[in-house]
């Protein structure tokens, strides 16, 4: 029905720009969404690995590529869910704190490297970025956070 409406109103997929199609991921075919997700996710992994490989050259390259890798991996899910649905899911009450912390540490890592030029802070923010990203990711797996909390509780008790 939606396809018929678009054809009748002259808004067919071929006339719709790529940006509009990406913003409304449901207009992309499932195969295209999966391919875009894979490319973006793999780019994120490559950036993170490249950052680790460039660590001997300095913390600046590591922090930059590690952060770009996390941003790319996070953006990859927009192709599966659609950006608006992704943003709504990110800011649901159960992941609000994890999302805000993750975004904060992404920004603070780059600030520590490029503006403040504090290597120790950059390393700390990269570690916190990893932990926040992990906690955020676990929020999408049912009962995963509870399992991690129980695991750490039993180890500390």
UniProtKB/TrEMBL annotation:
What are the entry keywords? Answer: Membrane, Protein transport, Transmembrane, Transmembrane helix, Transport
Topology in the lipid bilayer is annotated as: Multi-pass membrane protein
Query: Where is coiled-coil annotated?
Result: none
Q: Which domain of life is it from?
A: Eukaryota
Q: Where in the cell is it found?
A: Membrane
**Per UniProt, what is one Pfam family of this protein?**
Got1
Annotated GO CC locations? cytoplasm; endomembrane system; membrane
* Transmembrane regions listed in the UniProt entry: 36-55, 61-84, 96-116, 122-143
Under the heading InterPro entries, the entry gives: Vesicle_transpt_Got1/SFT2 (IPR007305), Vesicle_transpt_SFT2 (IPR011691)
Protein family per UniProt? Belongs to the SFT2 family.
| Protein's job | May be involved in fusion of retrograde transport vesicles derived from an endocytic compartment with the Golgi complex.
PANTHER family for this protein: VESICLE TRANSPORT PROTEIN SFT2A, VESICLE TRANSPORT PROTEIN-RELATED
Protein name per Swiss-Prot or TrEMBL: Vesicle transport protein
